[in-house]
Design brief:
Helix 3 (53-62) packs antiparallel against helix 6 (117-124). Helices cover 36% and strands 16% of the residues. The protein contains six helices and four strands, in the order ααβααβαβαβ. It is of the alpha+beta class and 167 residues long.
Length: 167
């Protein structure tokens, strides 16, 4: 699969099969995180992968009762040092690498932005001086994944100044 196909195939998956992810695939996914670009190459990211079923149920409650969080293979918590200016961007770039690698391997992911940071920090023993930037689910998609419509390119790409449509 080339990058264009991975980008076009990526979906926010909210229904997962009850199946493990092999260790060699996990290693490939970890390498996708490791290879991400970051501000000044600070690599300001740490990731907690939660596979324990009981803990995922508690994390689902802490994620505004999003049930599918409990059903994924892993719930991933992206942690960074908020004192470094670009921490939110760095985590986002790493997760983007991760999602595209996941698509190539046949997995689905979903970004999770609705969560109670204090509760998750407590459940996972994340230090107080760290920030949970965003979370993600991963697993084998179950059910039909329907692509959603996208805005036309000319509605959001401009040339030289805002509002001057690219032609």
């Amino acid at each position: 699969m080339d990058v264009r196909d991975a980008i076009a195939s990526r979906r926010s998956v909210r229904q997962y099969a009850d199946a493990p992810i092999p260790a060699d695939h996990m290693q490939t996914l970890f390498e996708a995180l490791q290879l991400a670009a970051s501000a000044n190459n600070q690599q300001n990211w740490e990731f907690v992968f939660v596979g324990d079923a009981k803990l995922k149920k508690r994390l689902a409650r802490a994620s505004m009762n999003q049930k599918f969080v409990a059903d994924c293979s892993y719930f991933i918590v992206g942690v960074a040092d908020p004192r470094l200016k670009w921490h939110m961007v760095d985590i986002t770039i790493a997760y983007t690498n991760f999602t595209l690698q996941a698509v190539e391997l046949g997995y689905g992911t979903c970004w999770i932005g609705a969560f109670d940071e204090a509760v998750i920090k407590g459940l996972l023993h994340v230090p107080k001086d760290k920030k949970i930037v965003v979370c993600m689910t991963i697993g084998i998609p179950e059910g039909r994944q329907v692509p959603k419509s996208r805005k036309p390119i000319e509605s959001f790409v401009y040339l030289n100044e805002f509002g001057n449509r690219w032609r």
